[in-house]
Amino acid sequence: MERLAELAKVFGTGAQIVSALVAVVALGGIYAQIRTNLGISRETAMREAYRSYLALAIQHPKLADPTPEVIAHADPESARYPWFVSYLLYTCELVMANSGDDEGWAKACEENIRPHANELCGAELRDEVKTMELSVQAMVAKTIAASQAPACLKR
Fold it and tell me: Is 148 helix (H, G, I), strand (E, B) or coil?
């Protein structure tokens, strides 16, 4: 009888240890699931922001690929132009913060920023760019350095 009591005690302790291990594994699984969901959520937000920028670019093609009139602020749509460029920079900041080391996203942002060098060289956006993520600041600096836009040549 004592032997049975002793075995019950050992098996009870073993069951508690197994239960604790199962709980730890379950917590690890929960942690992994939360991280996966967070990554998916970030990627979705990034893609949605970029899609929203593209929709805006389609609605306002003169702003997306600025005409000389827009650049000179002589077109009626010119009042929206600094806001458009600001929205592009915000989109690129969100994309770069969430895309990791994906060169495709960096290239997409650089290609979209390039036509706006003249506006980026102006004083209106200069302070805004300074508050952005370093990767976006570098893209803007690279665009300005390579630009032959009139406002960039005056600097």
Answer: coil
Other CB atoms within a 10 A radius of the CB of residue 57 amount to: 16
Residue pair 104/137 in contact by the 8 Å Cβ criterion: no
- The answer to whether the predicted template modeling score (pTM) of the entire model surpasses 0.70 is yes
Stretch 121-137: mean pLDDT: 88
Cα–Cα dist 70/66, whole Å: 6
Q: Report domain extents, the chain.
A: 43-153
DSSP for 49-104, please give it: HHHHHHHHHHH-HHHHTT-HHHHTT-SGGGGGHHHHHHHHHHHHHHHHHHSTT-HH
- What does the pLDDT average to over 7-20? 71
